[in-house]
Amino acid sequence: MAQPDQERMKKKRWVKRWEPHKHCLVCALAVPPDREFCSPTCEKEYTDWKNKQKGKNKNTWLCMILVIVVMVVMMFLLPMLMG
After folding, report:
1. Which of 28, 42, 71, 82 sits 20 to 30 Å CA-CA off 10?
2. Does residue 10 form part of some domain?
């Protein structure tokens, strides 16, 4: 009779230990399922990082467009200069 009680207690501990949760997007600490971050510091760090990424993406696109424009201009100018 002691066996089933031990099994039941073991199962209760497992369920309690692994209750539903998410992890903070910055530091990976466990947080409740309705939150994204563990603290305002992590939230600010994440928004700062996202804003920096947006700036980098914008610069990358501008460089790609500039390279394409230069290549197209060179395709039309070089034949005129050569001939």
Report:
1. 28
2. no
